[in-house]
């Protein structure tokens, strides 16, 4: 099977751009937002999840990964004092998404549990300009001939072509716009977790699915280039390594390889810290390695925070 993101790009008619989009990078680079003010709290959040919240010698990933996420989200919420509109967000858990589309002559569907979704009262503005969107017409999507790009997908009988944004987007729900999906790969056994490349592919497919379902809810099922693109972000982590993604749905006309493509920006494999020493290492009654977090990477936390702030500041 070929690498996951390349396959996901073909399935979703998407052009990949490495790194974060300028709209997010601008938040990172602008000192007025004071991202550095929360660095110590973020480091404390890591220590709390990895070192202090257990009586065990070392906490299990299934315990510390979700706790770290909750701690980081709580830290991000502290910015709502400076930016009150951040309080107009809601986290939806264990909700299901379904989105159906046609690609060449193949009917495709993404469905299932869609991570943890942060919803917002207002959509994230487009991150690519109209000129950048039109320029994607020149982009040639990679093909995998003679291998079919659907080689490892599960075949099912589809009796109803669902496009369902889940319970959380019922009519009248105030937090009606998908903002950021969070995927926690918290299985303790490594083989039960998605590898980073697989996780990025999953993030892309579900960001696309949420954006497509929202676009069809807003604009109907007719394939078209969207006047107002739909932006959905995604963050994936195993409790140490982070994947960041911003997806922009530019078109629901997905059948052919021609015309406008969708866009995704991916910032891969960002460590939040290098190591968590849960108990001190002692040799000949001398502490050679004290307990604690080593190699904390504040820039990774700032990227998490910038994605949280995106669309508000």
TrEMBL record:
Keywords assigned by UniProt, alphabetized: Mitochondrion, Ribonucleoprotein, Ribosomal protein, Transit peptide
Transmembrane annotation, as ranges: none
GO biological process, one term: translation
Molecular function, one GO term: structural constituent of ribosome
Xref: InterPro entries: mtLSU_mL37 (IPR052482), Ribosomal_mL37/mL65 (IPR010793)
Localization per Swiss-Prot or TrEMBL: Mitochondrion
Entry GO CC: mitochondrion; ribonucleoprotein complex; ribosome
Family of the protein in this entry: Belongs to the mitochondrion-specific ribosomal protein mL37 family.
Name the UniProt record assigns to this protein: Large ribosomal subunit protein mL37
Organism this protein belongs to: Callaeas wilsoni (North Island kokako)
């Amino acid at each position: 099977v070929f690498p996951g993101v390349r396959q996901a790009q073909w399935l979703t008619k998407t052009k990949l751009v490495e790194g974060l989009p300028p709209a997010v990078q601008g938040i990172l680079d602008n000192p007025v937002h004071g991202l550095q003010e929360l660095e110590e709290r973020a480091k404390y959040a890591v220590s709390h999840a990895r070192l202090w919240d257990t009586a065990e010698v070392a906490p299990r990933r299934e315990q510390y990964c979700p706790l770290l996420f909750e701690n980081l989200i709580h830290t991000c919420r502290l910015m709502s004092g400076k930016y009150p509109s951040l309080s107009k967000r809601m986290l939806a858990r264990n909700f299901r998404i379904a989105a159906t589309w046609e690609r060449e002559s193949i009917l495709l569907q993404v469905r299932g549990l869609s991570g943890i979704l942060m919803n917002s009262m207002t959509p994230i503005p487009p991150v690519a300009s109209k000129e950048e969107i039109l320029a994607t017409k020149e982009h040639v999507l990679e093909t995998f001939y003679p291998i079919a790009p659907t080689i490892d997908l599960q075949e099912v009988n589809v009796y109803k072509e669902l496009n369902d944004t889940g319970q959380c987007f019922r009519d009248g729900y105030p937090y009606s716009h998908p903002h950021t999906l969070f995927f926690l790969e918290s299985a303790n056994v490594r083989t039960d977790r998605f590898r980073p490349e697989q996780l990025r592919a999953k993030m892309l497919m579900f960001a696309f699915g949420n954006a497509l379902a929202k676009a069809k809810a807003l604009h109907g099922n007719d394939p078209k280039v969207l006047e107002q693109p739909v932006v959905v972000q995604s963050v994936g982590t195993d409790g140490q390594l982070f994947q960041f993604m911003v997806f922009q749905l530019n078109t629901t006309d997905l059948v052919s390889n021609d015309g406008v493509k969708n866009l995704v920006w991916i910032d891969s494999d960002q460590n939040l810290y290098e190591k968590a020493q849960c108990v001190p290492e002692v040799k000949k009654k001398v502490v050679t390695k004290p307990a604690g977090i080593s190699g904390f990477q504040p820039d990774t936390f700032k990227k998490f925070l910038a994605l949280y702030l995106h669309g508000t500041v």
